[in-house]
Amino acid sequence: MTAVAHTPTSSTPQQPVGLRGAGLDYLSRLRGGDVGSLPAVLGLVALITVFSILRPHTFTNSFNFANLINQGAAVIVIAMGLVFVLLLGEIDLSAGYAAGTCGGVTGIVMTRHDWPWWLSILTGLFTGVVIGTGIGLLVARLGIPSFVVTLAAFLGLQGVLLKELGEGGAVAYRNNIVNGIMNKNLPIWLGWTLFVVCVAGYALVSLRRLASRRASGLVSQDISVLWAKVLTLAILLGAATYYLSIERSRNPRITSIKGVPDVVPLLIILLVGLTFVLTRTPFGRHVYAVGGNSEAARRAGINVATVRLACFIICSTLAAVAGILLGSRDNGITPSSGGSSTLLYAVGAAVIGGTSLFGGKGRVIDAILGGLVVAVIDNGMGLLNRTSGVVFITTGCVLLVAASVDALSRKRAAATGRV
Amino acid sequence: MTVAESERAQVGVPSGALLSLRNIDKSFGAIQVLRGVNLDAYPGQVTALVGDNGAGKSTLIKGIAGIHAFDAGQYVFAGQPVSVHNPKQANALGIEVVYQDLALCDNLDIVHNMFLGREVTRNGLLDEATMESRAGETLKSLSVRTVKSLRQVVASLSGGQRQTVAIARAVLWNSRLVILDEPTAALGVAQTEQVLQLVRRLADNGLAVVLISHNMVDVLQVADNIAVLYLGQLVAQVPRQSVTQTQIVELITTGRSGNLGLKSNGTMAP
Q1: Domain span at residue A236?
Q2: A39 to chain B nearest CA, in Å?
Q3: Each residue of B198-225: pLDDT tens digit?
Q4: A49/A171 same-domain check
Q5: Same-domain status, A248 and A397
Q6: From CA B87, how far away is CA A301, in angstroms rounded?
Q7: Are A136 and A313 in contact (CB under 8 A)?
Q8: Which residue of chain A has the CA closest to B97?
Q9: Predicted ipTM?
Q10: pTM of the model
Q11: Do residue B129 and residue A216 have CB atoms under 8 angstroms apart?
């Protein structure tokens, strides 16, 4: 009769207890198997330390740092799309060649048919929507496993890319605006403005949420925790902006290269926008629900097929964005653009960042953190003059470690009752 | 004749019943699963629905919930004859079902689960503060004090707590009739106790509760009246006080007990 009273937990909500409490809470979550992005962050720090020691001049200079961001951008954007599909517990193997195909379509209409650059980009993105719709319909309506559908699309799109470019052919990107995305930098003042906007925006959003929770009388985190987070973000972003604002041209009198790369604001917009969709909208909630328990989602009245379809469309459309970035970086698209290791690097990036292959767990920022890890390995190994064989082996090992962390943390989570 | 039988003799719907089923038939192909079933559920009362495996309990509640419509018979809700052909219609009437295999998402927290598929939004965005407040109020109204934080993921809850969340979700939506399918089947002793108290509290809050259970101890502890299904026929619906456990078990296994249930020739009491 008194079972309720006997249970040890109390009715009083946890009180906010400042930084120490937040730290303890985080530790207990770690012990419970909820590691989040910690392995990626630790890995990134370790890799940067190792490469900085081994190649103090070439790795750590700001030229290489900016280069690294441009190298990783396409993989990061594909990985952002893959997060949506992985959240459902599905996979999209075709995202790499979808990127190549869409980049190719953009190049063909822009260079060979003289369409305006913005219309060409829209056409490329629309191609991505079409590819995603096709894959999504086959998976969500027909119920074919996504592995098979996207494997077929992987092969098919590879062929489409070859056909559209012609055997051994390529299509050049000759528009300065499009090529500028991956080859130009923001003016110094704009870079610092971006920094201020990001930090102030983060602080403002966090403060508003805190205020609204307080107003509703709900448990909220301590304000000191919030300020600590804002400060950390400001220090990290500030250091990066400062470093990127240094003159990094070998010969500054001929050309000056300095400032935050143009692609960075694009990555930030995608990160904020997609995170917003996943965490603040009913659609985002439904994505997590379908990934967690699709039967429960169905019984709760969620249209599971529509959610699946939407996620595949988002994934392929982001792949199209990545394809245009690839074209912009190389000033053109070749039949191997988006091929070879691109997709696997992107899957690796999402998983290394902390997105689960089993569905239901993941964030958009995972793609950025994991993508940076992959880019650092690729870049640093190159500077060590290691052959691509060694780079592939190392990246493979890192991916295995990340997947093991995922599996182990799930086991741990099951044992301690967390997911 | 017992009270139950004389009641049953009148085909009319008893006043005060929230849900009344009369002469319900349901067949799947050649197999007739329900035959002339009469069932009443009253606000403020727990009606236990018992019967052996295959007696038709699941079919009956699925029909009430609109998952598959009955072939024949009257479905009277709040005094009005209604037809319920899909779950949305049942939900609109205020009927909620808590299924045996819990329909919760492990990776979402309690608030998210309680509002799953029916999220509260403001300007198209999730209104987390309102949802958390309402979830908290609902759990409080059910005197649930066992969950530490509304923001913990459901995977971290015990079986009893999960069942509590599933039940709380059902009562969140101004529901009037809550149907619970084996809510204690997978629970330990203390947790069963906890859930049964919650079931009792639902009824005390004025809801009509239909409880399906195999566990006679649970049924006798919590029910106000007991309906017994035997091979697709509802052989008796009797007040809890008027029967013993032995009589219930007899009704479940043979369809009759003394002058309750089926007559010796196999037909229903008048």
Answers
A1: 185-260
A2: 20
A3: 889 889 888 999 999 888 888 888 999 9
A4: yes
A5: no
A6: 9
A7: yes
A8: A299
A9: 0.81
A10: 0.84
A11: yes
